[in-house]
């Protein structure tokens, strides 16, 4: 049945009047501080026109603006899919997802829309799931109405009363575990007038992950409940995988464009200090709300919260997205790249492209060689060539900052690895130095060094074996091969530094 438009307008007016029942907000000098009315003011008439099917996008993409100037009935169809996906090179994890991705599909509606939500749980799922959308007004945010067993579908509706950027997540017990497995995403409720137009919009969401194995330990890694309870994540990631936003998957923009990021934090535990190295946020809609702050360096995104940020790109190059709790960025994976292309602008920035200091081994398109080495290792067919290729990729991020990408070192500061007589005299010193570090006076190719190399404790045994094998077979070194088992034995043995003979 279609209502007479006049009649609909009368209802809308009545609703609006009822919503404005209280005293009018005091006018202020600052227009930005005016009361928008929260859930009590908006385009709250009945849905108009034919129902609209929501366009859902996978990260890092964002659906187009609704472009509507009236409320509609919007149909959202979201599938819950449990699937194994890579969480890092050569590391797999069983994710539980909304729409097959982590984070889940991005949903975009307009304030005043009536959202008809269909949640379908795939027949091959092992678990029941549901959804709690923070943009829903009503107990549980939809959770109890959407409890869905494997192979079933549920449906509920809500009116989007508050504009803003909201997290949604699964709320099936144990809730923390469902969220830790990747069950979260974002829903944008546009204000009635829409958001200002920008050149690029991207969808990024942070999450913390808990695996029984260590960081980058290869193979299929199960969820670790104990680590999760103790809030000791193995990985902290943007978009569900290490490398989801680096190399050939980096976000793209051109200079002279304005970029808007929709950034959520699924948690389940950590709060994010979100920062883009080399950029300043012109605007941040902090906490995903209505107002923006300007000229911000780092914005806090709570677990179960979100923020929108905008910046104009002036200088080409790589901009690094990080959680500025830095060990998460460099040792747990919370790192992404936004690549801006365009002409240099030396008046604004004279310097060079961001280098390995910030991007490390993530500067490469991907670490295919590391992944295939891991695969061969698990099937017992690892060749020297594979070890060298994998070691080369790892060397770039781990060793090259000091010893240089060419292995030449830096005179008087970092000894050379290229044609090193130190290595030639004792090839096993290589993995030993990596695992235990090295300090005190040494002589390499006739030059004295007396410095400190910290132990590279973050590397797994197979990573140490592959880097060592790469160095042994590069730059005029004697060749040979170091195995993972050798590294394991070295790790347990006491360090034998230059002081050992005293
Ligand atoms: Cu779930």
From TrEMBL:
Residues 1-26 form the signal peptide. Residues 24-52 are annotated as: Disordered. GO terms for molecular function: copper ion binding; electron transfer activity; heme binding; nitrite reductase (NO-forming) activity. Homotrimer. It is an enzyme of class 1 (oxidoreductase). Belongs to the multicopper oxidase family. The keyword Transport does not apply. Its EC number is 1.7.2.1. Its cofactor is Cu(+); Cu(2+). Keywords: Copper, Heme, Iron, Metal-binding, Oxidoreductase, Repeat, Signal. It catalyses: nitric oxide + Fe(III)-[cytochrome c] + H2O = Fe(II)-[cytochrome c] + nitrite + 2 H(+). This is Copper-containing nitrite reductase. The lineage of its organism: Bacteria, Pseudomonadati, Pseudomonadota, Gammaproteobacteria, Lysobacterales. It comes from the Bacteria. Cu cation binds at residues 129, 134, 169-170, 178, 183, 324. PANTHER family: ALCOHOL DEHYDROGENASE CYTOCHROME C SUBUNIT, BLL4482 PROTEIN-RELATED. Binds 1 Cu(+) ion. Residues 24-33 have a biased composition (Low complexity). Residues 386-475 form the Cytochrome c domain.
């Amino acid at each position: 049945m279609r209502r007479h438009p006049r009649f609909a307008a009368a209802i809308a007016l009545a609703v609006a009047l009822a919503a404005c029942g209280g005293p009018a907000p005091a006018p202020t000098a600052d227009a930005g501080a005016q009361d928008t009315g929260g859930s009590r003011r908006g385009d709250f008439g009945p849905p108009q026109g034919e129902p609209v099917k929501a366009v859902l996008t996978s990260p890092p993409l964002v659906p187009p603006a609704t472009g509507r100037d009236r409320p509609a009935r919007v149909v959202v169809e979201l599938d819950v899919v449990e699937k194994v996906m890579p969480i890092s090179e050569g590391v797999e994890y069983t994710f539980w997802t909304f729409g097959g991705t982590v984070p889940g599909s991005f949903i975009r509606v307009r304030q005043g829309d009536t959202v008809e939500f269909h949640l379908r749980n795939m027949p091959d799922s092992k678990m029941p799931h549901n959804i709690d959308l923070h943009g829903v007004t009503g107990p549980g945010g939809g959770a109890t109405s959407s409890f869905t067993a494997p192979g079933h579908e549920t449906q509920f509706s809500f009116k989007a009363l508050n504009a803003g950027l909201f997290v949604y997540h699964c709320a099936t017990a144990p809730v923390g575990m469902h969220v830790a497995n990747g069950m979260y995403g974002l829903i944008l409720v546009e204000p009635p007038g829409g958001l200002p137009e920008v050149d690029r919009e991207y969808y990024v969401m942070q999450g913390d992950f808990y695996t029984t194995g260590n960081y980058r330990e290869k193979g299929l890694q199960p969820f670790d409940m104990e680590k999760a309870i103790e809030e000791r994540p193995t990985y902290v990631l943007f978009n569900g995988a290490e490398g989801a936003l680096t190399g050939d998957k980096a976000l793209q923009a051109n200079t002279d464009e304005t970029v808007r990021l929709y950034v959520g934090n699924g948690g389940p535990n950590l709060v994010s200090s979100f920062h883009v190295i080399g950029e300043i946020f012109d605007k941040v809609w902090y906490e995903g709300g209505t107002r923006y702050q300007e000229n911000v360096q780092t914005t806090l995104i709570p677990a179960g919260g979100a923020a929108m940020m905008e910046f104009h790109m002036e200088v080409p190059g790589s901009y690094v997205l990080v959680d500025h709790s830095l060990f998460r960025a460099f040792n747990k994976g919370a790192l992404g790249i936004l690549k801006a292309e365009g002409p240099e602008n030396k008046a604004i920035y004279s310097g060079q492209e961001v280098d390995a200091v910030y991007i490390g081994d993530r500067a490469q398109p991907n670490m295919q060689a590391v992944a295939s080495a891991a695969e061969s290792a698990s099937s017992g067919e690892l060749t020297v060539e594979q070890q060298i290729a994998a070691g080369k990729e790892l060397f770039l991020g781990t060793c090259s900052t000091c010893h240089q990408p060419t292995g030449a070192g830096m005179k008087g500061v970092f000894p050379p690895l290229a044609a090193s007589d130190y290595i030639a005299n004792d090839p096993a010193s290589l993995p030993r130095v990596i695992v235990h570090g090295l300090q005190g006076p040494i002589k390499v190719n006739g030059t004295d060094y007396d410095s400190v190399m910290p132990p590279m404790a973050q590397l797994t045994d197979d990573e140490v074996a592959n880097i060592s094998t790469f160095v042994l077979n590069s730059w005029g070194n004697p060749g040979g091969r170091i195995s993972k088992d050798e590294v394991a034995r070295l790790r347990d043995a006491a360090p034998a530094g230059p002081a050992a003979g005293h």
